[in-house]
Write a structure and sequence with these properties.
This protein has about 350 residues and is an alpha/beta fold. It contains 13 helices and 10 strands. It has an 8-stranded parallel barrel with strand order 1-2-3-4-5-6-7-10, surrounded by 5 helices. It starts with a strand and ends with a helix. It holds the Pfam family AP_endonuc_2.
């Protein structure tokens, strides 16, 4: 078994126009001061990284790595959540997601160019990850079918199969590029994405021909909000889990609202994200299962809370993760009672 690495922190929710949150150097030093050992870098913010340049220039990639290392930190992974979302967007969501694209690619006339840009971004991410010495990458799958998630009106026969076939076709060139660069592409299973639970992931995996790089980012908070068994999920998919977001959540259904939330704001929804330790996730069990299955990646805090200040969430998050990481043992607890290995003794015990 291996010891999980950490604590790490996903920087996306902490970026700001004010120092120290507006430069990679400043934000990594801030994170290090709280006890974090690694940073997961969002690639859509040029203040953090120029993704294209990191893909094309080893010198630049080394500079980025040097900035992080100068703060006593490591890069855990890169993230293309926003670009990945744009690989597949149903027309109903075009305007809502347009803000994820560069200004020159927004608008209904640019949808095809926007998709091509997103695909290229993911290909850059594969090469940039390799140049940075990383072997896993975080993203979203995007969605063509999400508006049909509830089967009313009734779905036409074959609609789901056609949707996943198209989704796989869009991602296969990216997955192949990841494979060429030795990187696992880890989809964050998330509402709003066609990959939003285990079954939808299995459909996508089958449509890709079980591509070996189509892996998972495990975040138990999204399963709490869907009333799924987030521990059994690890039992089922542990071989594909290559990344881990440590994020808490709670689900308190009432006689008035449940999983769908009634269009309420986050503070009023029955299911809502919380700062670490304030929700319902059994992280002792989560860390135990991941350790049991030999997960050796990073435990990365993702902060999303509708109440607590982000800086307080980060300050509390580092020791929370550190205290949950299990340093694996190098010997069995009952070694003191061992009698040694002896084939003749074994045969005598068996009466042979």
């Amino acid at each position: 078994m291996k010891t999980i690495k950490g604590p790490g922190i996903f920087l996306a929710q902490f970026l700001d126009d004010k120092a120290p949150f507006n430069t990679l150097e400043g934000i990594t030093k801030w994170a290090a001061s709280l006890g974090f050992k690694g940073v997961q870098i969002p690639t859509w913010d040029p203040r953090m990284i120029d993704l294209k340049k990191a893909a094309e220039s080893q010198t630049y990639a080394d500079e980025i790595k040097g900035i992080v290392q100068s703060a006593g930190m490591e890069i855990t992974e890169l993230s293309t959540h926003l670009q990945g979302q744009l690989v597949a967007v149903h027309p109903a969501y075009n305007e809502l997601f347009d803000g994820f694209a560069p200004a020159e690619l927004r608008g209904s006339a640019n949808v095809k160019a926007r998709t091509e840009w997103a695909v290229q971004q993911l290909k850059y991410a594969a090469k940039a990850s390799r140049n940075l010495g990383l072997n896993a990458h975080a993203t979203f799958s995007g969605a063509l079918l999400w508006q049909t998630v509830y089967p009313w009106p009734q779905r036409p026969a074959g609609l789901v199969e056609t949707g996943f076939k198209e989704l796989a076709n869009r991602w296969l060139p990216i997955l192949n590029e990841m494979d060429a660069n030795g990187v696992d592409l880890c989809y964050e299973i998330h509402p709003g994405e066609d990959l939003h639970d285990g079954i939808s992931y299995e459909r996508f995996l089958a449509a890709t021909g079980n591509h070996n790089r189509a892996c998972l980012l495990y975040d138990p908070s999204h399963f709490v909000l869907q009333a799924m068994d987030y521990l059994e999920y690890i039992d089922i998919y542990h071989e594909k889990i290559k990344m881990f977001h440590v994020k808490d959540a709670e689900f308190n259904p009432t006689g008035r609202s449940g999983v769908y939330g009634g269009y309420q704001s986050w503070i009023d929804r029955p299911g809502r994200f919380r700062s670490l330790g304030d929700g319902q996730v059994d992280f002792k069990a989560v860390f135990s299962k991941l350790t049991q299955y030999d997960f050796s990646g990073w435990a990365v805090m993702e902060w999303e809370c509708c109440m607590k200040h982000p800086e307080d969430g980060a300050r509390e998050g580092a020791p929370f993760i550190k205290d949950h990481i299990i340093r694996v043992t190098e010997k069995a607890f009952d070694d003191f009672a061992g009698t040694g290995a002896d084939e003749n003794l074994n045969r005598r015990i068996l009466g042979l």
